Each structure stands twice: as C-alpha cells, then as structure tokens.
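A quick word before the example. In earlier lectures we treated sequence and structure as two separate objects. From today on, think of them as two lines of the same record. Here is 1-deoxy-D-xylulose-5-phosphate synthase written that way.
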Amino acid sequence: MNSSQDKGAAPAVPTYGRFPVLDRVSEPVGLRNLSVEQLKQVADELRAETIDAVSTTGGHLGASLGVIELTVALHAVFDTPDDRLIWDVGHQAYPHKILTGRRDRIRTLRQPGGLSGFTRRSESPYDPFGAAHSSTSISAGLGMAVAHHLRAEEDPSYKERNVIAVIGDGSISAGMAYEAMNNAAVAGPGAERLIVILNDNEMSIAPPVGAMSKYLSRLMSSRQFMGLRDLAGRLVKKLPAPVERTARKADEYARGMITGGTLFEELGFYYVGPVDGHDLPQLVSILRNLRDTDNGPILLHVITEKGHGYRPAETAGDKYHAVAKFNIVTGEQTKGPAGPPSYTSVFSRELVRRAATDDRITAITAAMPSGTGLDAFAKSYPDRFFDVGIAEQHAVTFAAGMASEGLRPFCAIYSTFLQRAYDQVMHDVVLQNLPVRFGIDRAGLVGADGATHAGSFDIAYLGCLPGMTIMAPSDEVELLHMTATAVEFDDGPIALRYPRGNGLGLDLPAQGQVLEIGRGRIIREMRAQSGAEKGGIAILSLGPRLAECLKAADMLTAQGLPPTVADARFAKPLDTALIENLARNHAVLITIEEGSEGGFSSLVCHHLARTGLLDSVRFRPMTLPDRFIDHNTQNAQYDEAGLSASHIVATALNALGVNTTSIGGMLAGNL
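And the structure line, produced from the sequence above:
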C-alpha cells in the first residue's frame, strides 16, 4: 500500500485484497522482479481493476483494455520513468496510471479535482509528455531521444535513456507521424534509442498473427539476428555501389513481404512484427531484445483488440471506446433521463434535410463521423460523405478543392482539432475566398475532457482573418437557421460554432430559415428604471450564454434595473448598427461570449474605439479567463470562468458603481 493511503490523503481503494499481486505493485519497479507467470496475473488483475474503476467514473475503457498486457510488459522491461514512455492521445493510459502510483486516485478519473483522462506532465513523473491530440508521440519521443544524446555527450555521467512512443493505427495515419518518422532517419545518433510501438487494434495494416509470424518477430528482434544483419550491412558497404543497393533492397523487401514492414523500412525504421499484443511472454521477450540494442530507430507492430478481456466491450460496435458509468456484470451503461436533442444532432438534421434537395452539399470530417453528427449524412448520402481520417489539414484543403469547383462542402471538425489546420484555413480557404462551410462542434468548454478538448480559441483565431463570416447560435432553433444560412452562403468562407451538449428543449421548426448576414437581434428592451443609478445596462451576448444573460436580466429587473438584452448572432461581420445603438443609449455595455480573450469582445471594442463611442460608454467584456480551466462539469466550468448569471449581474452593478454587498440577498449563494 502506498504512502498516500497511509497518510489518509486519498480515498480508500475498494478492491484492495481482491488482487494480491497487483496490491504489491505500487510503482513499476515492483514488476521487475516478477516472473512472466506473475506478470500475467498482474495483467489479469489490472484488467479487472481498470474495469471496476471506469465503471464508477466513465471514460475511455476500450482502448485501455486493449493495452493491458503491453502496459505491464513495458513497465516490467524498461526503467520508467528514467526511460520515457509516451502514450499517443492518452485514451489508453488508465492502466498506466494504475501501475504508476495513482491507483488510489483512479476513481477520481475525469472528476472535479481528480486525475486527468489523459497523460499530464504535472500529474506524474511517469507522464513525460502531455497528450490528448493525436499523432504527436513520435515527434516528441524523437526530440527526447536526441536531447538525451546531446546531454550525454556534454556530461559523460549522464545515462542515455530509451524512449518509447505508443501510437495507434488511427493516429499513425496522420501526416505528422510520418514527418517525425522521416526525420528520425537523419536526426543523428540519439534516434537509435527511439522505439515506436504501433498499436494496431483495427487489423488495418497487417494480416492476422500466426505462429510463423511470432517466430519471425522473435527472431528479427534478437541480438543475434540484429548483430548478423549489422555485420552483413558493413560487409555490403565494401561491395560496389550497385551491389550494395541491391543487397539492401533484397533484405528490406524479403522481410517486407513477410511482415508488411516495407513502408517503415523506407522511412528508416527497423521493423519488427506483427506481434500478438496480448501474448505477454512474447511481448516481454521482444521488448527486452529491443531494449538492449542500439540499432534504432525501431518500429514494433503489435496487434491488439479494443476492449480485450471484457465481453461486453468485445461485442460492442464501438468496443466501449467512451462509456458512461456502467454495470460490471451486464455492461449496461447508466443513462440519464431523455432530454432535448443535442446541438450536434440539430446541425446534422438540417444538413441532411438540405442535402436532399441540393446535390452540391458534401460533408467532410476527420475521423469523427459520429462525434460531429455526420454519420447520419453518411448513411443517407454515402457518395457525398468523406471521412479523411486524422488529417484535419487535408480535410480543410480537400474541402477548398471542392468549393473551388462549385460544390458546397461542410467541413465538420471540433473546435480544438480545427486548430491543427489553421494554416490551411487561412491560406487555402480564406486567402482564396472559397465558400467552405465550417461546422465547429464542441465550441466553448466541454466538461470532463478538460482543457485539451476545450473549444476556447476559434472566435479569436478565425475572427482575425479577412472575409471570414462567424456565426454562433444562442439555442438549437438558431443553430437550425444558421445551418440553413451556411448552405446558401456562397460569397466566401463561413463558420458556425456550437457547443457540446443538449439544447434548451425548444420546439424546432420543420426547417431552418436563412438569416441576414451580420444582423443581430434585440431580445429584451430596457424599460423604465426605479433604481438609484440611471442610464441603463445593455448586455450583448454571442452564443449560448444568452440563457444566462436572460437570468441576469431578471435579477437586475428585480432591483429596478431592467437591462436591454441583445443576441449578436454574428461575431463577424459585426452588426455595427446594433452595437452603436446599444452604446449610445446605455451607460453600460457588457459583451459575453464562450471564448477566449481576443475574440468577439475585441472586435466590438475596436469598433467602439474607432467610432469614438468607447469614450461615452462603460464597456465591460466577459470572456473565458486567460488561463486553462480543468475538467469538471460544464456548468461548474462556466461558473469558475465567471460567465454565469450572477457574474453578469455583478459586472453590471460594479460598472454602475453599485456596491453589490448592499443588494440584499439577490446575489447570495451565486457569487
């Protein structure tokens, strides 16, 4: 039992006593004197512990179950944390967290104040690189390996480390992974200590693993074989150049025909595999061989199964990739009460409806068909749906190519992932004024996924681009209208950003209506005031904070200060007439948005300054704070960010010079 439990600083682990071998392993060093049979028992117990923990927290279960044996083998063979172990994305890192001193906190996973759902440098020395966006592990690992070599050259007492990057078959499809592998071949001696493990859980690259393949993988990873191959390599270099090239190609292609590794060999990696990722004795043997060689960089190809070892996950279509709390025996997930449709589904519904009468509409996503709601489009119009894989840069330029030929492409990508294609948005779409439609899902704060997936910056990074139109619906009805508007807008690029989660439960019309570009609306007019401060308050909202603005308006009205509330609808182009009207006729103008500083409020402020109206109105912008907000519920995150109704009221009263402590109990419990 580890020290944090002895001190009573962490909650008790309910499974202590059920898993006798795992109970003895508080850190990876505890694995290194165990026999292979004992390691197999650790793996069995670790799988059961992972299932038990995630059943109480929810999270990414399938990927974690698929790497149980690999996780045990890696920590048993390598000297972590001195040897660096990087998990690409981090969905699969729950077993890693359990083995690295965090078992007593694993049931705080993705909970307020608890463990992150991804790897995080500040959380543990066993997490050498933070993750959550895919395809970064090889680049980071290569950088670490080269850094270790340079440090060792400078300081002879410094021990060079092995660096292991575990990357999935989906993540390795992204261009960044190949950029890193291409560079590894010429990065110098440090790259010799880089081991890339391709975790192939979709059988998308190699055929099933058989006995001959197992034998060849063990053989090719052995010191004797590597030494013989190195000797052969030195010998052929003595031969005339044409013969040397022929011999090298013969070696590569002979192994490539057996293993499928020719591509990786061409990129400069020594390929080993495919290997059964659930065969723990074989994994331990091969990893020991690879640990003790300097013939890198090396790519080890392992075949795994998402959800392995837990029948409900194995038989589920999504392999329990992301689950809510669930019953361990039946696998049945806890479902909340049925609520309003999600913003994602509303966007999907209108897009599918419009596509029925407009064959120019196409839909593009980057490996997120269900997450973006485009799976419904794909089912209805498979010839016009394109999932490009984890390749956001390609997705955007692919859409630009379509738009240049008169199609109406919708590129649906999460806000946090669109960041990865910023150059393409600017150079290939905006600079050419091509009418690509961006459906920006998960805009704003996103709850349990935390800062890595928050859509905090899209208004700021798109708002600075000339000719970009940006819409933000205040509710699901507005999203319906904005989707229809985007379909019909052919004058240039247009983006509609909408949040994660459900709408307000409003009745949806049969179809969306096309909105006038750059035109907001007044929701509630200021009425006569009875309070001590005259002049009035105007609240200009962009996006779903409008509901909180109306709550704040009710609270202010109760104090004799009924404000004007307006819905901007567009961050760009601004409704300058609306903004000027609000500034001229109110003492205070508040803007509020679910985005970072530098977004909508900055655009409004610039306009007020240019027109001289900033001199005559007390302007107060309300944005996300200039820091990252950790995982929590969405409501709690927005309260922490200072964007709830009570914060709007306090901002208004402070701008008016009213002492909020004197306003009875109106703000009690809210501030």
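Notice the following. The chain has 25 helices and 17 strands. We will return to this example when we discuss secondary structure assignment.
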